[in-house]
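Write out this protein's structure.
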Amino acid sequence: MSNSMTGFGRGEACGNGYQVSFELKSVNHRFLEIVVRIPRNYNSFEERIRKVLQDNFQRGRIEVHVNMVETEERKRLVKVDNDLALSYDKTLKDLAFALHTEYETDIYRLVSFPEVLTVIEPEIDLAALWQTCFEALSKAVDGFGQMRRSEGDKLTQDLLQRLDLIAENLHTIGERAPYVVTDYQERLQERLQALLGEVELDGVRLANEVAYFADRGSITEELIRFDSHLAQSREALRSEEPVGRKLDFLVQEMNREINTIGSKANDLMIGQKVIKVKSELEKVREQVQNLE
């Protein structure tokens, strides 16, 4: 069955000092467009994320939101340079002695001096961190894909029902088509008889006129092509491949055929069926825009 282009998925994983979460959401798009929003320090992962999505999806605008939170084991540490602090303290004592002033050690002043306190950033193992990211991303992709498949199944069933309804109307048009010529012949014969009165009709000219009308108004080829497009559409909907573009093309072709049928048929009943078919084709066209 075909997949929808709309979906949402979320995945989380914890490891290597990080709690990582991925959120995926998508809307319709003619091609595959991927927008990744990830903390700036980890931009090097963006291409890998894109590759995973490109391997799994063909169309749609997919937004990726990545959130990375440091766990306790990744907390930054503060290092105290005791020797430097003692050196600052001794220097201040010597200065106070030289100035003949009292001096009392102030710990808060000492730690404000340069390099007494240093924040230690823990090293990041990017290879290990990517494995945590990949685990979270895989979970998000699974849920995302499942939702797209579920939506696609619903769309497929709706489209198949609409194609069946179109086929029923097309069958009615096909059954009615031969009678259009017969009705035309009867109407033409009645009009000519009314005009000519007792004068005998020229059977050859009448037959030629009817034959010309039948040839000009024949919709046999259009019906055959339309039926072929219906069969191809059903086959596409039941395949496992992305079919959105193919179905969009087939709907355009079916619209072209039904417009030709409507212009050539010159019959009230067929005209009514043509309107119904065009109405259903418009609904099919709208639904097809949602398929991958």
